[in-house]
Design goal:
heterodimer; A: 128 residues; alpha+beta; 4-stranded antiparallel β-sheet; 3-stranded antiparallel β-sheet; 3 helices
């Protein structure tokens, strides 16, 4: 028996089954944990109340009024950001694009926030 | 003052276990020299020894070899009772628990590769549980699961193939001896 054949004989039918099961597990994990959490909706709040809920599938610009003026929220390529805001420190603008479910940009002075949600709402430290 | 010697009565089983644990330790040290892309992703070459011990001497011996390797290895690297030690320990314990079950699978159909893959997944599961409950209690570590699972599958398969190869040689030399 050649060395190669003896090597093959040590792999049994069930081993292939286990290997395939392992592959399935890895693929399922990857799909579930890496792709499932991309956000599909944006919740825009003003003064603590929901101002608008929009899907991320359409590109658009939304103007949200607040106590200081108007914040502009841009949705583009399934991402969302606050593109302009009258707040003095511009933290929410500098936060840039949001893409994952659970990400949030908050402009405290103007009381405007954008939160992304996916198919399932996840908890984060803000919920605590 | 006379020099006193302490002699422990040892059985040949003890010698086998000690030898195999020493080989496992050697592999652990060897593999620590291999650079890893992500902390925690290691080939786990010492598990080849655990698999061979499991096949040759049974589960209890495999537990001994595996735990000796974890404890003595942590003494080598100076992380005894440090987080890394508990990660190794939890991984090893989970693997051994799964091996205790999987070794009863019909031998005709399931070989070392099956045991190795199952043990590798159990190993990473045990580690992730400790990481989540103790070190990083944040759901963000879930993002790393696909990476670890892939590593477990790949290294589990490779280690299993190597162990299967050794066991083949075992059987061959056995039959040669009988002939």
């Amino acid at each position: 028996m050649s060395s190669y054949e003896s090597f093959r004989s040590s792999i049994k039918a069930g081993d292939w089954l286990t290997f395939l099961l392992g592959c399935t597990c890895v693929i399922l994990f990857t799909l579930k944990l890496w792709n499932g959490d991309l956000a599909d909706r944006a919740i825009i709040r003003s003064g603590g109340k929901i101002f608008k809920e929009v899907p991320l599938s359409r590109d658009l610009q939304i103007e949200v009024p607040g106590p200081l003026g108007i914040s502009v929220i841009t949705i583009e390529k399934r991402k969302a950001r606050i593109s302009s805001d009258p707040s003095p420190r511009q933290y929410c603008v500098r936060q840039g694009w949001l893409q994952q479910a659970g990400e949030i940009a908050i402009c405290l002075p103007n009381e405007v926030s954008v939160e992304l949600t996916g198919s399932a709402k996840k908890y984060d430290s803000l919920n605590y | 003052m006379t020099a006193s010697t302490i002699k422990l009565a040892t059985t040949s089983d003890d010698h086998h276990i000690a030898k195999m644990a020493a080989v496992a330790l050697g592999l652990t040290v060897l593999e620590s020299a291999i650079p890893s892309p992500l902390p925690g992703v290691k080939p786990g070459l010492a598990n080849i020894i655990t698999l061979i011990v499991l096949a040759r001497y049974g589960w209890r011996a495999a537990v001994w070899v595996s735990l000796l390797r974890v404890v003595a290895g942590s003494l080598f690297f100076g992380n005894f009772l440090a987080p890394g030690f508990f990660l190794s320990l939890s991984g090893a314990l989970c693997s051994l628990a799964v091996l205790a079950i999987s070794m009863h699978l019909p031998h005709r159909w399931f070989g070392a590769v099956t045991h190795s893959i199952l043990a590798a997944f159990a190993h990473i599961a045990g580690q992730m549980i400790v990481v989540y409950l103790w070190l990083i209690p944040h759901s963000g570590i879930a993002y790393l699961i696909p990476v670890f699972a892939t590593a477990a599958l790949v290294f589990g398969t490779v280690n299993g193939l190597i162990a299967a190869r050794f066991m083949d040689n075992d059987e061959k030399s056995d039959t040669e001896r009988q002939a």
